[in-house]
Amino acid sequence: MEFKERSAAVKAQEYLQYLIQIKSEQAIPSQRELAEQLHISRNAVMHALERLKSEKLVSVKERTGIVPNSKIDINMLNMQSMTAELKDKSIDIKHLSTEVITKPSELNDFFNSSSTKLIKIRRVRINQNIPLTYEVVYFDQNQFPQLEEIDFTNKPLYQFLEKQYKIEPTYGRESISCCLADEMQSKILKIAPNTPLYRVQSFNYYNDDIPLETTTQYLVGSQFKYHFNAKNIYDYREEQ
User: Fold this and answer.
1) 3-class DSSP state for residue 195?
2) Lowest-confidence range among 28-42, 153-167, 218-232?
3) Is this structure's pTM higher than 0.85?
4) DSSP label of 28
């Protein structure tokens, strides 16, 4: 009996996830209607809803019913800063820490061989008390003296670099993968361990191919979606 109830809940969850994709931000059928459509109990529907609510995929509102949560849509080919991508002044930036560290071996290929000390900045972006992204940024300490003394709470990095150092990024490369939240990431992002995350790593340069900074961002998977939006896609080539 327990096995059948779990199977019904899984069936309900898969159907709800399908409706989320096609309904966008419109309300989907009520719990009673879903139970009737799928020929399952309302308990099974409730179990599926609780799972989707814990993953922040849906909200249940008193008058509106079951509503898919909207996601932040990002064009993978834009190569903009996260501040520019979000375009939302209601999103706060919380500065977690800054420290000077010895350059990790995995960053030897990006930073110059003369760079031995890096500035490591950790921040989190928050929307209405809900963490959206956790990011770790590395700068060459020799290039940016006193940068480790700055509090970057609600202060966009690139705007500060342009104002303070007269530096703007000219180009960069970015990779996107998926991972599961570890204990530290889940604590910072206030999510359950092993929640799916986007892992976005970028390497950015300025004049004459000088390394500017590298950032690793962890984005809560249920809050974001990525898409391609490019013209003349057949003419697109990645420089070697």
Assistant:
1) coil
2) 218-232
3) no
4) B
